[in-house]
Amino acid sequence: MRILGIETSCDETAAAVVDDGIYVRSNIIGTMMEDFADCGGVIPEQAARRQLTLILPVIHRAMEEASCNWSAIDAIAVTKGPGLLGSLLVGTMTARVLTSVQGKPLIGVHHTLGHLSSPWLQMNIEDPASPIMFPIITLSASGGHTELWHRTSHTRGTLLGTTKDDAAGEAFDKGATLLGLPYPGGPQIARMATEGNPHAYPFPLPLKRDDGYDFSFSGLKTALRTAIGKRIISTKETQDLCASYQEALCAHLVDRLRKAVDAKGVVKEVHIVGGVSRNDRLRGMVQEQMNMRPLPPIIRWPQRPSFCTDNAAMIASAGYFRWLEEGSVAFAPFETAASLPLVHSVPCNSL
Ligand code: KG4
Ligand code: ZN
């Protein structure tokens, strides 16, 4: 089954061709991050206008790199939400026109279900796909959401916890703005942190006494603002602040992940996905946790950095598994929505 995926929820214009939900034949990402480097975030109208200019060339290139024509495509999967409405509409309108002109079914995909599908994407068609074993605990941390899921199939699961305020990536981005670093802040903080001391500033672990699975990042952001104060900070101080702030953000993510794994009994795999899963310190911390007290034997991260941040291969994959597990329900008409909880689009077994 070959699916063309389209993702335009924010500041990436992406198209990909994926076979059987796993094998990535092409994965094209047109990014406009540089446009917003000095803005501290994305300007929605400007992002939508750039999506318009990029969408057709990006789809064209994805088809070309996959060496396929329309007759080889079985369906189109597109991000239906959540995200910036203008950007989303460029993707969904394009997908609607293409499916109608080419006579293909259309699958609307929740953006987070896309991220949740990213660990089984693989580039090399020659490699055998390793079987996925459920139940899985997935930590999905991006610029728009931070969630913990207990999953019993590709499209079924229970939301265990979510953020009470900012998302983890948003906390990186806002922290970078406070430190005078460009957008997106995650990679900038990670880069500066490599030269800094993670124990220079003792930022508190959020929700230490809370026994749920929720996250909170706004307190850390305030602590960072207080630590910076009104002074001009040196490069060394910036490096130390980045390292300490990153340490606290990652410790909070890993603390909640550990707790969910410990509480849920049999868990076969742990997945960590979303833009923040590119963070090397987060990866190191998960490894340290495993060395201290074993996590389930299989820990999966998206195979490539480009599968962590927004991409269309994950949308094609999620579309495929929706089709596989939900049948024709996957082709149901949908609305494009800026705000869209996944709990309503993923059937939950238990809460
Ligand atoms: O998943 P994603 O591409 O888009 C959303 O769905 O939001 O995630 C983007 C987020 C941004 O907030 C960015 O700062 C963060 O992922 N990010 C990182 C790293 N690379 C990207 N955060 C921490 N460390 C990184 N290396
Ligand atoms: Zn995303």
Explain what this protein looks like in three dimensions:
There is one protein chain. With 351 residues, the protein is an alpha/beta fold. The protein has ten helices and ten strands. Strand 2 and strand 3 (23-31) form a beta hairpin. Helix 4 (168-178) packs antiparallel against helix 7 and helix 7 crosses helix 8. The longest helix has 29 residues, at 235-263. The protein binds 5'-O-[(R)-(carboxyoxy)(hydroxy)phosphoryl]adenosine and zinc ion. The site of zinc ion has 5 residues, from helix 3. 5'-O-[(R)-(carboxyoxy)(hydroxy)phosphoryl]adenosine is lined by residues 10, 142-144, 169-170, 172-173, 184-187, 190, 274-276, 278-279, 309-310.
Gist?
The protein has 351 residues and is of the alpha/beta class. It has ten helices and ten strands. The two termini are 33 Å apart.
Structural class: alpha/beta
End-to-end gap: 33 Å
**Overall average residue pLDDT:** 93
Helical run tally: 10
Helix and strand sequence: EEEHEHEHEEEHHHHEHEHH
* Share of residues in strands: 15-25%
Q: Can you list the strand order of the major beta sheet? A: 3-2-1-4-5
The rounded Rg comes to 20 Å
Query: What kind of sheet is the major sheet?
Result: 5 strands, mixed
State the low-pLDDT regions, or none: none
* Ligand catalogue: 5'-O-[(R)-(carboxyoxy)(hydroxy)phosphoryl]adenosine, zinc ion
Per the principal axes of the C-alpha atoms, what is the gross shape? globular
Number of strands: 10
